[in-house]
Amino acid sequence: MSTTAQVLETSSKDRAWIVWSAILIGLVGILYAGVLKILVGQWWNEPDYGHGFLVPLFSGRPMVERAGLRPRLPCPTVFGIRRVAPARATVQD
Asked: I want to staple 52 with a disulfide (CB 3.0 to 4.6 A). Which of 17, 37, 41, 43 is the partner?
């Protein structure tokens, strides 16, 4: 199989994945539009529920990491302490 054929085959698979994802998101959006409208109104108007805007972000992050869509960050090293220690020393308690 030529390289061009492989590229075209891969791009058609990617395109199909995007199309089906868009269809699924659209259907879920249509089905839950009424519920989401009420939730967003409650999140916007009631201070006790204002954190509702952040919940999808925080709950979505583990799903994205588990799916492997986001590269893992490198482990921290002790070299960062060289920048943190002097900065911490300048903070007045």
From this structure: 43
